[in-house]
Structure formats: C-alpha cells, structure tokens
C-alpha cells in the first residue's frame, strides 16, 4: 500500500545483505594502562564515513557492546567500542559495581579513558573525523554525558538508560557543550529519581546545550539488555518496545548529525 | 559514503515526485452543527492505506493544518483534517482563546467532534480502518490526548506542543487506552508547568497506557509554527530543530504503528 515504506524496507535489506563486517581487537593505552577495544566496520562501504564510539556497561566491554557495534557498522559507520576498565578487566555482578564506582567517583579518569578511545576511532583512515558521535549503555550512558560535559568536539552523544548526575565541580559549562545530547530513558527507572532527571535538564539548559530527553513508559533500567530479564519489578529489565524505539531514535539523531 | 543513507534519500525523492495529491472539502455534521473538514490523499498510491486524522490549533482548521495534511498524504497516508469548531468558525487571537475554551471546558463535546471527524476518515474507501492515528497541534494536541483518554480504538495519537491536563472525572481509565501515545513537547513551554507534565505521566502510567514523552531543549509553545515568530521569550516561537525532530519522531512512531 505505501510505496515509500516498501522501498525503504528493500533498500535496508540490500544494505545489510551487502555488508562485509571486518572486526579487529585494538590494543591501546591511557595513563600507562593497557586497554583492549573492539573495532568494526563494513568493508563494502568505500571512503571515509562517520565514526561512532561505544561505551560499555558496568561489566566492561563484552558481547552486548560488540553486538551493538556490529549493528552500527551495518548502518555504515566505522565503530570503536572502548575499553574503559583495562585489558582483562571484565567484572561480573557484584564486583562490576565496585569497578564502575572507580570511574563514577573519578570522572576525570573516566573522561580520559573515553578520550583515548575516541583518539583510536579518529585515527582510523576510514573515519571522517568531522563526523563523530558516542553512545553508551548504563554506566556508559553516564559516560557519554561526561564526554559532552567535558566539551568534547563531537557531533553528538546518546545515553541509553544512563545515570544523569554530574560530579561536583564537573557540571556542564555554559556555551562549552558542542555535542548535541540525546537521553533515552526509562520513565520507571528506579536508579534515576525524578529529581536527578530535573537536575540534568536544568544543568543542560543553563549550559545552553542542545539536548533531548525521551521517556519510555513502563521501562526500567537496562531496557535494551535481554540479559536483564523481563521482570520490571526488579528495577532492571528488557523491554522490546523501548529497545526498538530507542534504537530508532538514535538512528534519526545520527541522520541529523551526519547529514 | 553511506550506501544506505543514499538509497533512502533517493527512494524518498521518487515517492514525492510521484505523488499526485487530491484535495477535497468535506461537509459533515455533529450534534446538528455543520462542519467543514479537509481531505487529502495521494492518488498515485493504490489500495487501502493507513489513515491519519489531524486536529487543528486554537484558530481552527486553516492553512497550517492543510500543509501538514499534505505532508502526511505525501508519506502515503489518507488524511482528514477535522473541523472541531464548525463551518466558518475560524477565530483569530484573542477570540481564538475563547473558542478553544468552549471545548477545553466541555471535553465531552470536544471528543464528540473529533469522533465525528474520525468517522469521516474511516468511511473513505481508501482508508484501512484497522490502521488509524491522530495528530494535533496546540489545542489539537490536547484534543488527541482526549481521543486516547476516551478509549478510542485507534493505533496511536501524537500531540505536538499540546496541553496535557485532563478534565475532572475524565482522566484515562486503567486498561482502557488502546491508542499508543506520543507527546512531543517543548521543554521550556511556559503553558505546561512541570507539575502538569508529571501529572500526565502519572495518569498515563496508572492507566497502563503505552506512552512516550519527548522533551526538546529551548523549545517553547508552538515550536512547529513559523507564524509564532522566533522569540522564545514570548512563550510561543518556532524552532526549526524541534520542528524537524518532532516530525521525524512522528514518522518513526507511524512506522511502528502501521507495520
């Protein structure tokens, strides 16, 4: 019935069918610490293309981040999934909370680790270094907001169910936030009280940042993670609707950033 | 550089180039009052297609609503722009406020007027009556939320900078909201206090509705309306970023509803 929707679907299939993903483990370092990131791009795409940095959740760079990185590569981007923690540091719950806490309480170190990863992404010959974005999940969703607060010269950041609080003395500075900010948030996320959401909006507005917040009903923490299970009463759970909607919102955002 | 993005752009151009819009004035009635709506569809699209109802702002059905209706028809939908006020009732400011007030204070009448328009849309032979949505601007943004609260059997509603308050005794009823709800909202809209936004979320959550709210930074009331000017300090102003983002969010929502 709808000619345009039909054509869109076909062009998407063609693109995916043509994708030839190349994956690489990349060893890099920051502050003397060895880090092990993951690079992926579509070899069927020629020339330079926008680059997307992916920041992992509290358990460190693992399969979830690699899966999202591949999905981004299939969209035509060159992708680098950062390793904030260090080679071999892939904690499980509850140790993951302790490891994440090191960086949440030392945002300077967290920023430095992400900027080192961004340098890896920018250095790749396939990356158009004028078209960069960062996305992050949970812990990484907090991270990409720190990248924005740091005044990083990138086009935009996307936070998926991340914490929104800033650290004392490290809030966004007025007029110094070049990155557009997209927050994709579970309206029922118990880890982000309404006060924190309001404070974030106030911080970003006072900083004259270009920000958007999307609230998804009945979505709690980790709504993009199938491993979180399906019981929202636990505070973290997968929700297919919010997962698909947030991925679509990110794609719309990237179209705007990289047009 | 990005194969998929390029193909998407081409398919969009093709579709627009092929569009042959047919426009009709439709006289209908509700409660003995004669109403004058506006229908538009793309004659180059064959067969039944999803239908979209458009609810006007406080000045009544006018050029703005017709323009949006044409844009929707170019996307492949059959479109009907309702006339809530009645034939010839097209008030300007400040009379518009008085006219809108009649319906804001009589939500039963408002709902009846929109349902009559929905019947016109459904009756068209081109409309797939199992795939219906409604969008509205300002006053009409309030209206489409009333359609949802009324338990109307449609796939979804989209409110652009609408008021979010419900009337006493007419709030959403738990389990009786079939329509998915998308609210596209200026984060700095002075006509919708934070308390009203919070109350709306509470109402919709308690009603177990499927809802989403998108907040656009630095956007005030009427952010989609060029006629509102460019001075946000006046409380109503056009903002190109929020206009384009909200239109994109609506399109993504429709893809989900009508897949």
List keywords for this structure.
7 helices, 37% helix, homodimer, eight-stranded mixed sheet, alpha/beta, disordered N terminus, Rossmann fold, 259 residues
Task: Provide the helix percentage of chain A.
Answer: 25-40%
Secondary-structure element series of chain A: HEEEHEHHEHEEHEH
Number of domains of chain A: 1
Question: What is the tally of helical segments of chain A?
Answer: 7
Tell me the major beta sheet of chain A: 8 strands, mixed
Radius of gyration of chain A: 18 Å
Distance between the termini of chain A: 29 Å
According to CATH, the fold-level topology of chain A is Rossmann fold
Description:
Chain A has 259 residues and is α/β, with parallel strands linked by helices. The first copy, chain A, has a single domain, classed as Alpha/Beta hydrolase fold, catalytic domain (Rossmann fold). The first copy, chain A, has 7 helices and 8 strands, in the order H-E-E-E-H-E-H-H-E-H-E-E-H-E-H. The first copy, chain A, has an 8-stranded mixed sheet with strand order 1-2-4-3-5-6-7-8, with helices on both faces. In chain A, helix 4 (107-123) crosses helix 5 (139-149). The longest helix of chain A has 18 residues, at 240-257. Chain A is globular, with a radius of gyration of 18 Å. Mean pLDDT of chain A is 93; it is low at 1-15. Strand 8 (211-216) of chain A pairs antiparallel with strand 8 of chain B, so a sheet runs across the interface.
Blueprint (SSEs and pairs):
Two copies of one chain form a homodimer.
Chain A lengths: L2 H16 L2 E10 L2 E10 L6 E7 L7 H12 L3 E4 L13 H10 L2 H17 L3 E11 L1 H11 L6 E5 L19 E7 L7 H13 L4 E6 L23 H18 L2
Parallel strand pairs in A: 3-4, 3-5, 5-6, 6-7, 7-8
Antiparallel strand pairs in A: 1-2, 2-4
